[in-house]
Amino acid sequence: MKSHLAALIVALATVTVPIPAHAQMTPEAAAALQRAIAIEREEPVTSVPLIPHMGKYAFRASLDGIERQFVFDTGSPTMISRELAEELGLEVIGTNTGRDANGREITTQIAVIDRLTIGGVTFRSVPVLITDFGIADPDRCFFDGGVIGSEIFPGSVWHIDAGRQMLQIAGSLEELPDLETKADAIVARLHDSGYPHAPVFDYAIEGFEDRGLFDTGNSDTIVLFDRIADDARVKSAMIAGTVREGRGSHGVSAAGLGANTDLLRFEIEGIRLSGAELGRHSGTTRSAPPSLIGLGILDTYDVTLDYPGTRIILHPRDRPRSVSSEPGYALMASDAEVRVVQLFDASAAQLAGLELGDRVVAIDGRELSADDTGCETIQWLTESRLAQSARQLTVLRDGRRVEIDVASRRPQ
User: Fold this and answer.
1) pLDDT in tens, 295-354
2) How far is residue 271's CA from residue 364's CA, in Å, rounded to a whole number?
3) Is CB count within 10 Å lower at the N or C end of the chain?
4) Residue extents of the structural domains in the chain
5) Could you tell me the pTM of the whole model?
6) CATH code for the domain defined by 329-405
């Protein structure tokens, strides 16, 4: 593997980019962020394939005629790589400083794309943030063109069909008639407070009320801001016997790897959107607000973001995807090594002797050598979901190899 910081494994947000906090902008940049984006449609509904990509979804799109693959991140503004911005010859019109998923400040440049085209729909004069993805993805294992986010959402209906792995974009919900007939859908108000127009909704847990974000940039299902998770009403909704404390990093975000901190995993029920319960789902916490419904919800629901109707709609899937159990640990490739970056108390892995920070040199007999290609190793780790399926990890401690049976069950 090449020496670089790669991707967190096991349902962690590989990269979550910032919603602006404050900025140094020219009047031109400020106007670009506030200006309504014009939309040109070749057909009433356009459909594009969603490409599973290292624990996220991506799709093909073109910027001013140059096509790339982009991660689809509903919780982010559109961000493109510095290399793509140079290829496009974009003019920088200002800078923005925001915070990433780990609460760290990150500064990006602002430019405007004339044409952003997804399938048969083109968005005109789209503001984009230009960033250096080298901190989180130096060899471009995760990013090609960058991230397409939420500033292009107003004026359209965005339907994410996870079962068919398809994204549909329409001008109104009436143009997607099959969705209107689903009586078992959960419908909640969609709030739009301005750029970057992220999908924000109201939710309640056992009398506690708050606003959350639908964020496909986070692979988990329910992610609570840790201060909210401490509320007695919220704690009462966590299923007895499922709460697991741990230690480690929340993941790699735009400004780099988050510091080790206390972690919490649980199953929770009683979350309501407009009075309708979501059912029982796995949850975790994060150190920065807001709370999220993440990409994992697509295992159970298809999601429609109806911006013209100011609604977020969750449609129960006909065939929910089976969800594998949490392994109690997470791995990350970094500096030509794979290390344990999360470990939960009383998990099979911890009881078998795995330790936070352990260097993993083999998984189920497959050696992880320094000669491996970085992107191939990262893809193998993420897309094979090895942490869920691995039975044995070989770690290196004090110069000797130690075999750990991470699939063993807790002694009775």
Assistant:
1) 999 999 999 999 999 999 999 998 777 666 778 898 887 667 888 999 999 999 999 999
2) 38
3) C
4) 11-161, 188-300, 329-405
5) 0.88
6) 2.30.42.10
